[in-house]
Amino acid sequence: MFKKLIPIAGVILASYAISLLFANHKPAPKPNVLFIWVDDLRPDLKAYGNAVVQAPNLDKLAGQGTVFTNQFVTQPTCGASRFSLLTGRRPRNMVELNNAAIEKEIATQPRTDVPETFIDNLRRNGYYTVGIGKISHSADGYVYGYDEPRSDKLELPYSWDEMLFNPGKWVTGWNAFFGYADGSNRQGKKSEVKPYEGADVEDDSYPDGLTANLAVAKLKELSRKKQPFFLGVGFFKPHLPFTAPKKYWDLYDESKITLTPSSDVPENVNAASLHPSKEFNQYNLGEEKASLEKPVSDAYARKLRHAYYAAISYTDAQIGKVITELKESGLYENTIIVVWGDHGWHLGDHRVWGKHTIFDQSLRSVLIVKTPEAKSGNVRKQIVSSVDIYPTLMELCGVKVPTKLDGKSFVSLLGRNNSNNWENVAYSYYNKGITVRNDRYRLTKYFRQDAPNIELYDHETDPHENHNIAGSHPEIVAKLSETLEKGNTGLYK
């Protein structure tokens, strides 16, 4: 009898040993994602070569993650740019070029087998998803007009477990978005306001301070959940009006702020490729109006740059509060952090104050990615597109993409090894034009009657796109035109 029990005991012991082995090798938990969206943030940070801007929290994150110095958005306007990022798609129709893209193409659609956004895809795969502030186009994630009460209709109806915003004294998200420290806003004042403000107040006297406080409180809650999370936090500044507490203005000596190296309209370019700064000029109490006929005065240009930089510093401080809480809550080591600017902004470059062009100044924006594995910073000069972010996050989170995307994952660029197989091409669309950027040139084709409608810029000799050389280099235009046509999604005929 004893001899019969020995084999059975051996099987039991072996099974126990195997169970212990598997118990000690549990699958690694899925990483959390903290995605920080910053409105109108052009690459004016030390990591991008601007030593003037004071943004210590973003500088520190850049030193720990991967900085993409050549990330380009697909559309240089808020709603459309965010639509492409969220869906991983380049624009297919004219609606997808404007700020109503998300409202028209997502908010009105029924739920299908295809996730409405990458956030929805994460949610379908076990992530708890929270949005705070401006993630889609609306300031608080709901569909309603600037002058209307907030509706109950979400822009992204299937993406969120929670969509949060604290409008404070401004009452609605859109009032807060265009708000001033006294609780007023641009639309309530009928545009009789300045394009900047530096009130002597605390951080939470402007909306982004309230957003940071909300994000900190939510992280404390999320740290107690037994579920991976996606937390999107959308900050308003440095979008117009350039508002920030006075202490952030005081970080700068205005007299030492440099001006644009592109104070004139580019050579051999039709004015139709640019614009007369309509968004900026609607702030009626500004000291000067912008136009393509002549630049604003140097003094006013410095004041406006000062205001923009102060707004960056203010947002940087709010980002710092969120990342500090991520660490104090014990979440930092297993969280992917992404900081993304939804497009660039002309600060007087080519006499334009605003976005809405398909020049580098309007298309190039901040992208910093910190993964849990990263221990030190990398700088990547490869050309990447905002549509590449969707597939990258899915690969990092171990989540399949259930549909074909226009972007491709750049996970190979996040490690210490530098991928040699990257295509180095980014397409953008706006203003009846398509543009393609590679590691040396930008070629742009406008579908209009006004000539010239082909532009070529050599970034090796002309990094600020001051000289259109298409007429003198037809061979380069011909070669790059083949690449440009690959990016024609049928938007223009």
Give the biggest sheet: 8 strands, mixed
Spatial separation of the terminal alpha carbons: 87 Å
| SSE-based structural type | alpha/beta
How much helical structure, as a percent, in the residues? 25-40%
Q: What amount of the residues lies in strands?
A: 15-25%
> What is the overall number of helices?
13
Catalogue the unreliable spans: 1-9
Q: Report the principal-axis shape.
A: globular
Number of strands: 19
Strand order of the largest sheet: 5-4-7-1-9-13-2-14
Mean pLDDT: 94
**Which value, in Å, is the CA radius of gyration?**
24 Å
Walk me through this protein's architecture.
There is one protein chain. The protein has 493 residues and is an alpha/beta fold. Helix content is 28%, strand content 15%. The strands form 5 sheets. It has an 8-stranded mixed sheet with strand order 5-4-7-1-9-13-2-14, with helices on both faces. Strands 16-17-18-19 form a 4-stranded antiparallel sheet, with helices on one face. A hairpin with a 7-residue loop joins strand 18 and strand 19. Helix 7 packs parallel to helix 10. The longest helix is centred in the middle third of the chain and has 31 residues. The protein is globular and about 60 Å long. It starts with a helix and ends in a 7-residue tail after the last helix. 48% of the residues are buried.
Offer a quick outline of the entry:
The chain is an alpha/beta fold. Helix content is 28%, strand content 15%.
